[in-house]
């Protein structure tokens, strides 16, 4: 019993100090909330990036400054792949898929240079089950998936109640390209991340301060 309490205390203390560090970076450096969220969303020591966080990042990518900060982080994740940090790569791949279908059109052109890396990693156990490579290689498929994403997003915005929005959000994950492209031999598996939630709050506070 005492051991469980101690571990819970350590977990809460770690989370507290992590949040303080994030707040300090936002205040004392030129890092942006979107940049910080992208770093957190593609770190291997956290859960998969949740749909809300990826939505915030994809919208921020339409701003020039945030766009370059976001793509730089993703390029680094792909460049630094090895078998010990495959989770960073895999989570970056999930985020890239979302950016391809929800972010600026130029994302597809930006990551053409990473196709060879994605192909190479295809030989690894945790391969591109999200179909990112297909989106990068097929302009027709990319247009279809972007149209599908817009249609589903507009469907969510058309509902009034929270419960309807929640059920529509579930529909997105079930009907998205994540399912359509099929699964391979990946053992990787959307959990809500409290750290990402706090980043969304940090972004709101900064915007209010401006």
Automatic annotation (TrEMBL):
Keyword Transmembrane helix: no
Alphabetized UniProt keyword annotations: Cytoplasmic vesicle, Golgi apparatus
GO biological process: one example: endocytosis
One protein family per Pfam: ENTH
Molecular function terms from GO: clathrin binding; phospholipid binding
Start and end residues of each stretch annotated as Disordered: 181-210
Claim: Signal is one of the keywords in the record: no
Gene3D superfamilies in alphabetical order: 1.25.40.90
Protein location: Cytoplasmic vesicle, Clathrin-coated vesicle; Golgi apparatus
Biased composition (Polar residues): 195-210
Domain (ENTH): residue spans on this chain: 26-166
A cellular-component GO term for this protein: endosome
Protein name (record): Epsin-2
Gene: EPN2
